[in-house]
Write a structure and sequence with these properties.
Blueprint: H1 3-8, E1 15-18, E2 25-29, H2 34-53, H3 56-72, H4 74-85, H5 89-109, E3 116-118, E4 126-133, E5 136-140, H6 148-160, E6 163-167, H7 173-186, E7 193-195, H8 201-210, E8 214-220, H9 223-232, E9 239-243, E10 248-252, H10 258-270, E11 280-286, H11 287-302, H12 322-337, E12 341-344, E13 359-362, H13 369-372, E14 379-385, H14 388-396, E15 400-401, E16 403-407, H15 411-420, E17 425-428, E18 443-444, E19 447-448, H16 453-458, E20 461-468
Parallel strand pairs: 5-6, 5-8, 6-7, 8-9, 10-11, 10-16, 11-14, 13-14, 16-17
Antiparallel strand pairs: 1-2, 3-4, 4-20, 9-19, 12-13, 15-18
Helix pairs in contact: 3-5, 3-6, 3-7, 4-5, 4-7, 5-6, 10-11
Bound molecules: NADP nicotinamide-adenine-dinucleotide phosphate.
């Protein structure tokens, strides 16, 4: 397809990578077994000493070079993302820039990993803290953001002075391998950051949790797998970051700016065909504005262009695979059987096996599966509510706590609702909240830890308390 793909694919590889829009194989890559990965972890652990010994400024220079190389190849990387995960090319370009921004951000933050001096508690003693790299880390990432979910982990790990071994999703190893290649070109030592595609994810997960050289595991993916890894990591008390599933409410109050709310709904719900962890999963719309909001949303959704992601102008690409499409279809059918009405869409698209028409669903009861489970597809179920208390109760009635959105103009309500929503991230009057400068992460069963912002670096640092005694004359 182009130079980067030629360099990362391996004709003798055992893992075919398929385009979800066509089902065709784009490339093959090799996979790694447990013994090989154990060797790669040992090499990484050796490499990290020299890397950690470099000054933060030197590490930052290498990371900055990596950022520049990624942005130089933005178009090629975007085409790889679209080819292996299906998202529209315009979104893929955006993902490369968003993903690269984490490398740039953490290159800068590395220089500010400050310790502190603490007023002493006794004569002849001084109290300080320093921050040191955690050590050798492991990471496991999903397919829905094949670049950004990697840079959010590898950027801070390398900036902090750690080594990192990463298993990408089986569906999307090409973006990961391309990032590894560019890191090498930028001067990241070979053993320090390794990408290991694997066809036995559970065995690699067990290795990451049981190998004593791994001091930290960072995982992004489903809550189900997060629970497995959390249980496994108990044996070594391995430090964990978990970015898991969500069930984002999108609440529209009577006093909302309706056009802004529809705009936000389009951005939040239909990005990546609804396959993001922070996608609005359920819309809660107040009585007085319900019909007007639904009418405007339906009009916009019906006009979305469904097309293969590689086609310029595509707004809804394919879902990742047939299982993803089936899940969406069965949740929708069950909702309709419980009285929900389809306003637009509601079925598979003629474009191919994995395509699903963008859909708006109304008269949805707040207790059915389509609003209890992650849909991960382009379906917007709308629930009607009466007052603020009811909206908060429905919004918080979930084991998840990743992102929440609401639209309102009353200042008191904006504060009350922001504070009442039990979520790691709350956006008022906006449908997009991800940025490298802010802490991304969830509470409850949506995970542990934060990625991005200055807090994202702390996830890869240990805080050491240093007591200096015997200082009296
Ligand atoms: P997934 O099935 O949990 O897979 C995620 C990763 O875990 C993949 O690399 C997968 O490998 C691997 N894996 C599967 N079983 C494993 C096991 N037993 N032990 C260790 N690793 C294992 O999730 P997904 O379907 O790829 O991604 C969608 C999910 O990710 C959604 O729930 C979404 O909300 C969540 N997500 C969360 C965030 C966030 O920041 N909170 C961001 C993006 C996505 P294979 O690919 O080989 O199966």
């Amino acid at each position: 397809m182009h130079e980067l793909i030629d360099r990362i694919s391996d004709e003798r590889g055992d893992l075919p990578v398929r385009d979800p829009a066509t089902g065709k194989t784009i490339a093959t890559v090799r996979t790694y077994g447990v013994d090989e990965v154990a060797g790669i972890i040992r090499d990484a652990d050796v490499a990290r000493g020299a890397w950690a010994a470099r000054t933060a400024k030197e590490r930052a220079r290498v990371l900055r070079a990596w950022f520049d190389l990624i942005m130089d190849r933005q178009e090629q990387l975007a085409r790889i993302i679209t080819a292996e995960c299906g998202k529209p090319i315009a979104e893929a370009r955006g993902e490369v820039a968003y993903g690269a921004a984490f490398i740039e951000w953490f290159a800068e933050e590395a220089k500010r990993a400050y310790g502190e001096t603490i007023p002493t508690f006794a004569d002849g003693k001084r109290v300080l803290t320093i921050k040191q790299p955690v050590g050798t880390c492991a990471a496991i990432t999903p397919w829905n953001f094949p670049v950004a979910m990697i840079t959010r982990k590898v950027g801070p790990a390398l900036a902090a002075g750690c080594a990192i071994v990463l298993k990408p999703a089986e569906a999307t190893p090409l973006s990961a391998l391309a990032l590894e290649l560019l890191a090498r070109e930028a001067g990241v030592p070979e053993a320090l950051f390794r990408v290991v595609p694997a066809s036995e994810p559970s065995a690699i997960g067990e290795l990451f949790c049981s190998d004593p050289l791994i001091r930290k595991l960072s995982f992004t993916g489903s809550t189900r797998v997060g629970q497995i890894l959390m249980a496994q990591s108990g044996q070594n008390i391995t430090r964990l970051s978990l970015e898991l599933g969500g069930n984002a409410p999108f609440i529209v109050f009577d006093d909302a700016d309706i056009d802004a709310a529809v705009e936000g709904a389009m951005a939040s719900k239909y990005r990546n065909a609804g396959q993001t962890c922070v996608c609005a999963n359920r819309f809660l719309v107040q009585d007085g504005i319900h019909d007007a909001f639904v009418a405007k949303l339906t009009e916009r959704v019906a006009a979305l262009k469904v097309a293969p992601g590689a086609q310029e102008g595509s707004q809804i690409g394919p879902l990742i695979n047939a299982a993803g499409r089936e899940k969406v279809a069965s949740l929708l059918d069950a909702a309709v059987a419980r009285g929900a009405r389809v306003m637009t869409g509601g079925h598979r698209s003629d474009l191919g096996e994995n395509f699903f028409e963008p859909t708006v669903l109304v008269d949805v009861a707040p207790d059915i599966d389509i609003v209890r489970q992650e849909i991960f597809g382009p379906v917007a179920p709308v629930i009607r509510f009466r007052d603020e208390a009811e909206a908060i109760r429905i919004a918080n009635d979930t084991p998840y706590g990743l992102a929440a959105y609401f639209y309102a103009r009353d200042l008191g309500r904006v504060w009350r609702v922001t504070e009442a929503l039990e979520y790691g991230m709350v956006a008022a009057n906006d449908g997009l909240l991800s940025t490298e400068v802010a802490p991304f992460g969830g509470i409850k069963q949506s995970g542990l830890g934060r990625e991005g912002s200055r807090h994202g670096l702390d996830e890869y640092l240990e805080l050491k308390y240093c007591l200096m005694g015997g200082l009296s004359a």
